[in-house]
C-alpha cells in the first residue's frame, strides 16, 4: 500500500462520490476505483458500500478513516521536515484572492516574501468572489484562498489575519434623510445588492434582519471600490468595510447610516488535510510575518 491509496481513501470518504473525488485528486474515475479496489484487496477488508450514485463507508472503513488521516498527516510532516532541511520548496501554488483592495490585503508584501523565501515555487494568483473561491477550494482548483469568512467550512482550516467591521453607508447628500430615519423609511430608499452567497450578503442580511429593514435593492455591486463609487454617486445605500468607509467619509463622499454594523474576519483558508504541505506552510508563515509587520 502507498500514500496515494491513503489519500484516495480519505478523499472518497469525504466526498462520498468517486467522480467528485477523482476531480479533486486530478485523476480519472477508473484510477480512483482501481486504487480503492487494490487497497481493499491488500487489506482483505471492504471499506465502502457502493450504490449507483454514491459510496458509503462500511463499519471497517469508518474505524480506519481517522487512522488514515493521521497517517497522511504524519507523512506530510515528514515531507515538510525533509524539504525544510534543504530550504527548498518547489512546484505550483494556486492562491485565491478575494475581490477587496489589494493594498489592504497586503498582497504585494506577501508575494515579495514568498518569492524571496521560495524562489522555485511558481505562484498563480486567482482573484474572485467569495462563492467562487469556496467552490474552487473545495474542488481543489486552488490550493488556498485569502478571503472574508467567519468560520472555516467543513474540511478546511483557517488562519485569521484580521477582524473586519462593515458599516451601512449612504450618499453624503442623504445625510438629513438617514439621520433619523426609521427602518420603514430606510426600506423605501434605494439599496445596492450584494453578490449572492458572498460574505457581504451574509453580513448585510444579518444587519437587515436585526434592524427589521426590508430594502428595495437595485444595482448589484461586488467590489468594494465599486460600492464606494456608487454610494458616492448617489445610487443607494450600501455595505462597506469600515476603514474604507472612514476614508470616504473624510473625503465627504458618504455618511454612516446609524450604528448598523457587522463583523467578520479576513483569513487564509486551505484544505485541512494539506496542513503540513510545504507550499501551504510557506504561505501561512509568510502571511503571519507580513501581518505581524503590519
TrEMBL record:
Residues annotated as domain HTH lysR-type: 1-58
Keyword field: DNA-binding, Transcription, Transcription regulation
Residues in the signal sequence: none
InterPro entries (UniProt xref): LysR_HTH_N, LysR_subst-bd, WH-like_DNA-bd_sf, WH_DNA-bd_sf
One Pfam family here: LysR_substrate
The family this protein is said to belong to: Belongs to the LysR transcriptional regulatory family.
Protein name, entry field: LysR family transcriptional regulator
Species of provenance: Ralstonia soli
